[in-house]
Amino acid sequence: ETAQSLAYDPGSQPSVATAAPSSSSPPSSSASASAFCPVVPVRGAVVERQPRMLNFCVEYRSTNVDVVLEESSSVGEIKQILETELHVPVSKMQLKGWKTGDVTDSESLNQNFLLVISHHEAQRDYSLNFPGSKTIQEVKRNIYDLTNIPVRHQQWEGWPATARDDSMTLAVAGISFPCHRLTVCRRTSPAHTQEQSEECTDVHMVSDSEGDDFEDASEFGVDEGEIFGMGTSASRKSPMMPENAENEGDALLHFTAEFSSRYGECHPVFFIGSLEAAFLETFYGKARDRKPLAIYLHHDDSVLTNVFCSQMLCAESIVSYLSQNFITWAWDMTKEANRARLLTMCTRHFGSVVAQTIRTYKTDQFPLLLIVMGKRSSNEVLNVIQGNTTVDELMMRLMAAMEIFIAQQQEDIRDEDEREARELVKREQDEAYRVSLEADRAKREAQEREMAEQVRLEQIRKEQEDEREAIRLSLEQALPPEPEEEGSEPISKLRIRTPSGEFLERRFLGSCKLQVLFDFVASKGFPWEEFKLLTTFPRRNVTQLDPTWSLVEAKLFPQETLFLEAKE
Predict the structure, then answer these.
(1) All structural domains of the chain
(2) SUPFAM superfamilies, alphabetically (predicted)?
């Protein structure tokens, strides 16, 4: 937490005197405070991280109020808390004591400062972004990583007169916002350094001691390893990656959480999963969807690690470029067991040559960034980027690797398109052949159904004909014999014309019923259910008469010409 003390100013308004905040966050906190929201890691893994807190002590008359809030809060939020505690309206509050001058209610507590630091001997300028919560001591340690000048030998120009305590944060050190210029060089002797300190109040030095006189670092509240920026992983509160993780996914979850706590949320999105899973995600999809693989190899014992992570790997331009164009997988090489595990994985996926190459790199050459591309049926390491680089050089090498990858990707896309075109033609031919077979089969089945239907109808027709023939024969056999023409009984001679134009002639007794006439016509193949029997003149439908009437009663005596007509 960051502590700030507040003093009382007689009057109607509270006043604030700001002291040097002290931070409980790790010294290697991110040099960029930009809010970058990384994509949720693969397999839905979500890494939670405690926010950095600031503690303000406000003195108002005889009352002291402690205000604790996140570093991303604004001054206006402090006033709202004070209004609740002190019952003083926000409009009447005036907070004093900010070492950077008066601030507005909307101003954030974690502003970013751009430090342009000139290295006198190397004649080189470093443009470094730091949050306001970064301490002067942490800035000097970062400069040691860049210039190889130990903190005790650093001679500075440009620090304000108020910045005499290295535990002070940049936000309260009185430096210019948003950009402040500083100069650093290696001091030549203690006497010369003391002289500089007396002549210029802008000079800020950590110590006047040199060489063996700097054996006791406890007076600064830190151990010697931390001052040199070379503390081992064992001296840290939490290693970047556990030594005996059950699987690579759990190890990467721990790595991502620890990386975020050290360097902030603005960092590349690390793939959560095994190296083999990263290969499958990167190289074995469609050619248009493939990306090169960036393997980040971390080492806590390297003096380059802190600066590379905070200033290069976490630079917004690098983070954006990696997120858009690469799949980034990470591993910690600090522990020997993890190092051996990584070399085994490299041997399996790349071969012994790559593994042996990684073995040749010394600790102070880490961290490494390996750019890997899937080529045909093998995986090829395009580039190995060491930690002693700059943002511009890192970006150029990433872009160069991307150009090689895009050229290979275009070739793979052409091959894939040609293969898909051939497969499409084959599929179309197979589909046409299948449709043809299906049409032939449907045609054959239709013919078979038609033939079966014809057989069925023929069978029905035959059965109907057989049935009608049986009825006809039975009716024919049941007819009374035709009477003689010279008989004693009255005779009715009937002449019947069929629809085909033929005539049926027969004699009937005048006393015969009409039913006998109907049965005679039906025995000739004209059932009265289907045909009607009509007289010529006057036109009458005989089949509508009572079949029990005699021919005489039906006026079909002594002779009559009739004709058959099919019923509608």
Answers:
(1) 52-110 (3.10.20.90), 112-186 (3.10.20.90), 248-414 (3.40.30.10), 491-566 (3.10.20.90)
(2) Thioredoxin-like (SSF52833), Ubiquitin-like (SSF54236)
User: φ and ψ at 190, to 5 degrees?
Assistant: -60, -40
Which amino acid is it at 309?
Answer: C
Query: What does the alpha-carbon distance between residue 271 and residue 294 come to, in Å, rounded to a whole number?
Result: 10
Distance CA 66, CA 2 (A): 11
Instruction: For residues 106 and 77, give the distance between their C-alpha atoms in angstroms, rounded to a whole number.
Output: 9
The pTM score is 0.44
321-351 confidence digits (pLDDT tens): 999 999 899 999 898 888 888 888 888 877 7
Q: Which of 412-426, 432-446, 453-467 has the lowest mean pLDDT?
A: 412-426
Q: What is the 3-state secondary structure (H, E, C) of 199-227?
A: HCCCCCCCCCCCHHHHCCCHHHCCCHHHH
Nearest of 283, 291, 286, 289 to residue 416 by alpha carbon: 286
Q: What's the token pair of residue 24?
A: 């409980």
> Over the stretch 45-99, which tens digit does the pLDDT of each residue have?
444 456 677 788 888 877 888 888 877 677 778 888 888 888 888 767 877 776 5
Encoding tokens for residue 255?
Answer: 């790595």
Phi first, then psi: what are they for 384, rounded to 5°? -120, 115
**CA–CA dist 257, 241 (Å, integer):** 10
Reference 117, options 140, 94, 138, 100; nearest CA is 140
Most confident of 131-145, 367-381, 466-480: 466-480
- The CB-based long-range contact list for 399-408 (8 Å cut-off, 24+ gap) reads 399/321, 401/292, 401/371, 401/373, 402/292, 402/325, 404/373, 405/291, 405/292, 405/373, 408/373, 408/375
Strands 503-509 and 531-535 turn out to be unpaired
On whether the CB atoms of residues 58 and 65 are closer than 8 A, the answer is yes
Q: Identify residue 491 by its one-letter amino acid code.
A: I
Q: What angle do CA 83, 88, 94 make, to 5 degrees?
A: 90
Mean pLDDT of 490-510: 91
Q: Report the alpha-carbon angle 182-185-190, nearest 5.
A: 120
Residue recorded with tokens 């996926």: 349
